[in-house]
Design goal:
The chain is mainly α. The chain has a domain of 99 residues: Up-down Bundle (Receptor-associated Protein).
C-alpha cells in the first residue's frame, strides 16, 4: 500500500474511535443524558417511577465517582474532565472503553496499513486514550459553557421567587424545574439534598468546587454569608446576577478577540497534514526514495508531536485570565 493512503486511514480510524465512543454512550444512556434537554434528566428519571432518594443517590454517585478514582493509572488524566462533564460511565467502564477502542484501532491499522507492529501498537494506544480524552474534554467544555450561559438566568429566577415570598430552598427547587439541563439537574440535586437536611450553602460550595467555576463560588459565598449574618438575599443575588452576566459578556469579548490567534494555531497545526495528504494524492511516489528509511515513520510521529505541542502553546498564549 502506498504512503498516500496511510495518513487518510489513520485519520479515518481516529474519527471512527470518536464516533464509536459517542455511540456507546448514547446506546448505554440514551439521548436523555445529553446536556440541554427540554425535560431535564432528573425529572425524567422521577417521572419513570424512580423514588426521589434513589434518583439523588444515582446522580450523586455519577457526579462524584470520578474524583474518587484518581489513583487509577492513566485514568488520573481523565478524572477532572470526566467529573466536570458528569460522565455517567464508571471509571472502570471508561478504562474498558479505552482498551476496546485501542483494540479497534489496532485491528484497523493492521488491516489498512503496512506499518510495523511497534508503530501500530503505539498509535492504537494513542488513539484509544487520546480519542476518549478528546471526547470527554469536548463533553466537559460544552457542559460548562452551557452552565455559564444558564447561571445568570437561574440566579434572576431565584431572585423573582424570593421577592414573591418563596424560601430560598423553594427557589432552588423552582430553578431545577423551570430551566434546562445541565444546570437544572445540578440544582435539582441541591434541592433534594436540602430536603434531606443538608445545608444549602454547603451543597452550593460542593457543586462549585466539583465544577471548578468561579461564578458558582460567588453564589455559594453570597448564600453562606447571608445565612450567617442576615440581609436581603434577593438584593444580594440580583447584584450577583449582574456581576455574573457582566463577566459572561467580558469572557465572550475576550474569546472573540483571541479567536484569530486560536484559529491561527489550528491552521498552523493542520496545514502540514493537509499538505501531506495533498502531495500524496497528487504524486503518490513523492516519498518513495525515503519511504524505506528506518527513521521515516518515527520522524513522522515526531513531527506530529510538534504539531500537537504547537496547539497547546498557542492555546496557552491566548488563555487570558479575567
Amino acid at each position: 500500500m502506498s504512503l498516500g493512503a496511510e495518513p487518510i486511514i489513520f485519520g479515518l480510524i481516529f474519527i471512527g474511535v470518536l464516533v464509536l465512543v459517542e455511540g456507546l454512550y448514547l446506546v448505554a444512556f440514551g439521548k436523555s443524558i445529553s446536556g440541554n434537554n427540554k425535560v431535564n434528566r432528573r425529572l425524567e428519571m422521577i417521572e419513570k417511577g424512580n423514588r426521589r432518594d434513589e434518583v439523588l443517590e444515582k446522580l450523586r454517585k455519577e457526579m462524584d465517582q470520578h474524583m474518587k478514582s484518581r489513583g487509577i493509572p492513566i485514568y488520573s488524566l481523565l478524572a477532572t474532565k470526566a467529573q466536570k462533564a458528569a460522565i455517567a460511565f464508571t471509571p472502570n467502564q471508561i478504562i474498558m472503553i479505552m482498551m476496546g477502542v485501542s483494540a479497534f484501532a489496532f485491528i484497523g491499522l493492521t488491516v489498512g496499513t503496512e506499518t510495523g507492529l511497534p508503530v501500530r501498537a503505539v498509535a492504537s494506544l494513542g488513539m484509544g486514550v487520546g480519542g476518549v480524552y478528546m471526547w470527554i474534554n469536548h463533553k466537559a467544555a460544552k457542559r460548562l459553557a452551557l452552565i455559564e450561559e444558564q447561571l445568570p438566568d437561574a440566579v434572576e429566577l431565584m431572585v423573582r421567587s424570593l421577592r414573591v415570598g418563596h424560601p430560598f430552598s423553594s427557589a432552588i427547587s423552582i430553578v431545577s424545574k423551570e430551566i434546562k439541563d445541565p444546570l437544572a439537574t445540578e440544582f435539582g440535586v441541591i434541592a433534594d439534598e436540602s430536603a434531606y437536611g443538608r445545608d444549602v450553602g454547603e451543597a452550593l460550595k460542593h457543586m462549585a468546587e466539583r465544577l471548578d467555576m468561579q461564578d458558582l463560588r460567588f453564589l455559594a459565598v453570597a448564600v453562606t454569608i447571608q445565612q450567617q449574618s442576615g440581609g436581603n438575599l434577593a438584593e444580594i443575588l440580583m447584584g450577583l446576577a449582574r456581576v455574573i452576566r457582566a463577566r459572561f459578556r467580558l469572557f465572550r469579548r475576550v474569546k472573540a478577540i483571541t479567536a484569530e490567534a486560536q484559529w491561527s494555531g489550528k491552521f498552523l497545526s493542520g496545514f502540514p497534514i493537509f499538505a501531506l495528504i495533498a502531495i500524496n494524492l497528487l504524486d503518490p511516489h513523492y516519498y518513495d526514495d525515503v519511504l524505506d528509511h528506518p527513521w521515516f515513520i518515527p520522524a513522522c510521529f515526531v513531527v506530529g508531536a510538534f504539531l500537537v505541542v504547537n496547539l497547546f502553546v498557542m492555546r496557552m498564549l491566548v488563555n487570558i485570565k479575567v
